[in-house]
User: What shape does this take?
Amino acid sequence: MKLLRFRRTETSRPEWGIVDDGAVRPIVARHTVAEIFTAVKSGKIPTARPLRLDAVIMLPPTDENVHLYCAGLNYRDHAKELRMPVPKSPVFFTKSVGALCGARDDIVYPSGTRLLDYEVELALVVGRRIGQSDVLRPDTLKDFVLGLAVMNDVSARDVQLSATQWFLGKSFRSFAPLGPWVQTLDEDVMQRLRDLRLELRVTAPDGTTYPNKCQSGSAADMIFPPHELLNCLREKFDLRPGDVIATGTPRGVAMSRPGRFKTRIAEILGIAPGKRVAAYIASEIKNNRNYLERGDVVSARIATDNGFVDLGEQRTRVV
Assistant: This one.
């Protein structure tokens, strides 16, 4: 089941609905993720007259006040391209809920930023509170998680690296497009979780696809699967309905990794780490062909090759 959060007009109240064949059937009297999760589990979902999908305003499919937790370096091919060791335990960072936006909203290029990067990610939307005693397994994930969605972890790399501020560099407004919808978990979806393919393409304003701005990877390349990520978090604190967990990105991001030779030379010469970071950022700015530019259109999609599971496609424009 595909669940969409939407508005009918700019000023109307957010609603949830079921996406079906180019239309959305509004769900009656269910407004929060917890209420939607309970309805899905009960099988009793009251709906109203369908609306055309292209006539509604898509919203990020979660509640307003939630937390965004992101797993870093959780794909082997991504760790390899950055020449980073495969982590032995999950690595997390957070993004502000103020970064959330819909799958058709614009990505706003912040003033003063020079290195705007993209990261397609498989996201989990928590359906019920997950506490310290709730041990998750692959076969019980559906008892706690509402479903899966596409997320783009947009990053201002120069802010992230120059101030060692991952949170600020990743939390600008519009830096977390989520959706278009949430695919609920059932046995068929769970059996195909590792078959999901993550794809991201960037096109110029004239429609030309950039060959150097793309990602392609398989969820089978994850180092820590979703239930392990959730277990790692719930051991420290409770997760709440609507919380979003981004599970990492495959290879192909714009940011490059400084060569080992250059890094070693910098160490031999005694160049301070801060100066090394500044030199690296300056080099990236000089050779920034891979980074996003104003006018680019970012298409991000997650689905199985046969289309049995399809989380939909984001199309966001950089402005």
